[in-house]
Amino acid sequence: xxxxxxxxxxxxxxxxxxxxxxxxxxxxxxxxxxxxxxxxxxxxxxxxxxxxxxxxxxxxxxxxxxxxxxxxxxxxxxxxxxxxxxxxxxxxxxxxxxxxxxxxxxxxxxxxxxxxxxxxxxxxxxxxxxxxxxxxxxxxxxxxxxxxxxxxxxxxxxxxxxxxxxxxxxxxxxxxxxxxxxxxxxxxxxxxxxxxxxxxxxxxxxxxxxxxxxxxxxxxxxxxxxxxxxxxxxxxxxxxxxxxxxxxxxxxxxxxxxxxxxxxxxxxxxxxxxxxxxxxxxxxxxxxxxxxxxxxxxxxxxxxxxxxxxxxxxxxxxxxxxxxxxxxxxxxxxxxxxxxxxxxxxxxxxxxxxxxxxxxxxxxxxxxxxxxxxxxxxxxxxxxxxxxxxxxxxxxxxxxxxxxxxxxxxxxxxxxxxxxxxxxxxxxxxxxxxxxxxxxxxxxxxxxxxxxxxxxxxxxxxxxxxxxxxxxxxxxxxxxxxxxxxxxxxxxxxxxxxxxxxxxxxxxxxxxxxxxxxxxxxxxxxxxxxxxxxxxxxxxxxxxxxxxxxxxxxxxxxxxxxxxxxxxxxxxxxxxxxxxxxxxxxxxxxxxxxxxxxxxxxxxxxxxxxxxxxxxxxxxxxxxxxxxxxxxxxxxxxxxxxxxxxxxxxxxxxxxxxxxxxxxxxxxxx
Length: 670
What we know:
The protein is α/β, with parallel strands linked by helices. The chain has 21 helices and 20 strands.
């Protein structure tokens, strides 16, 4: 081994002594004609190669071999180190060293191996290529070194020719180039990812800001519409409680109430859509009796179908005693939307709601009508927001009902599908899984009688707080009409002064008011009247989900949205003050007595046309037409005026059924 290395050094010395290499036949001769300049790679730079060897001759020979050699249009800049320690210092000082030609035996037998390890581990340099050159391979066996050390090539100095050395260096430089490019690509990619992430973050922030702005806008616009609408609907309800209200005025005020409720439905549709889009609408599962929900809906649509002379049917093809768990409110809204459309777009025939089990807990709700049907093109659009059927004269509303229904069905993990044929009708199928109820459902018996006032033994006091006078007067008027002792306040601070003077049983508090808002007032009430159970009910036109949660969190016992129905006020009095009420007498009982006590009208003969028009008007609930025909009755002899008085009495209580019974009794005389 030593003889071979000695021969290698002698060759080096002879080569260095020569003036020219034109006749050189020794090792390190560039005898490979295929080695040529390669593709340009950073042409303005050089390849930096560090020679680490304790023999100066090796340094000189290596430089001599490469001479003016260029690779990829870059020359090679050699840096020399004569020990392992010196090489590490140079590596720290110089950036961009592409290759280390590393001897093994220098200041000790393993100096080169230590350098290789330090380059990778201590300097954390994974880019620089390492070619191990040794004249004593016995000190560093090739296989063991390749396994234990992260080097890129292993060369025995005695076997090296100039072409082999150049080939090894070119291969190493090419590897370094590819690693640098890859690292640059990674850095570029990382920068792009960071920029993209930053852009996405900005987009997310912009979207969140837009959503927040939209929520604020909808909240404000909702408040601005609900506040006056609360007064309109409130005074309409208050006026309809007046037993002495003339019939003509009753009809007009009832029309105002119906129109106001329609406007409220439009507002609620927009807010529901906003909640769905913002992800704020949540499923609120409770235990309930499905058949009771369906019966309530059936009563509502039986009346609507009667008004349009449509047949109505509710088919319950399941165990009607079953108690289920689901979002009763959303199920009700979906069914009301579907049935409302069915009645609206059906002019003759029937509307049917069929409910059955398709297996397990999977319920199917089929809403079927005999309307005009929906074309295939329209079927693909009906669930879109704001879509209304082209050319349909009945297409009133916002165009949001079906879109909201479909999204609510999906929110409950259900499906809403359509099957329709033009000229035949449509069928909407709402499928939903409703598992069994977790516990027994308590059944409350609701009274259809109108509340008149508190019973004589009830004493309840209330504080009404609202900065809008009409709202304050309206709610105070209702409570006074019920027999509640009422005081009022115009803001939170005024409310606190009133409570300090005299405590009340229940406080109805608006939220947004001057000087002190309702939420601040209720916080103060909870602190100041810590030992007093002051019932506080928030009544506000701000009705977004997060707002309601906030009201309840600061100390309100309940939230009521403006505009409110009087039943909500009655319920707070019942739930929190144990109120008991007197009710109006059931007019149907009186009407039955009226019908039973009628004269036979044996001598009364009605014109056939008048009789048929009167029956038709009563069956269709055409109130104005009925009154016109009743005016004609008083001109008929032998009981016409008496019949008019009887039918007018029944009409005042909207008892069209009893009116039909009366007309049937005298029908044979026509």
